[in-house]
Amino acid sequence: MVDNPFVFVWPVDQDGFGIEHVGPTGTTLLGSVQYDIIRPKGGPPRYYRPLDDYPGLWRPFAETCSSVEGVLTFVREFGLLTDRGTEGPDEILSTAERIRDIVTLLDDSDRAGAAGLLNRYPPRISEPLYWNDRSARFETRLVPFTLRHALLHQAAETIAGNYQWRRCGNEGCPRWFRLGQGAHTIRREYYSNRCRVAHARRQKQGATTHG
Ligand SMILES: [Zn+2]
Question: How far is the CA of 16 from the centre of ligand 1 (A)?
Answer without folding.
Answer: 23
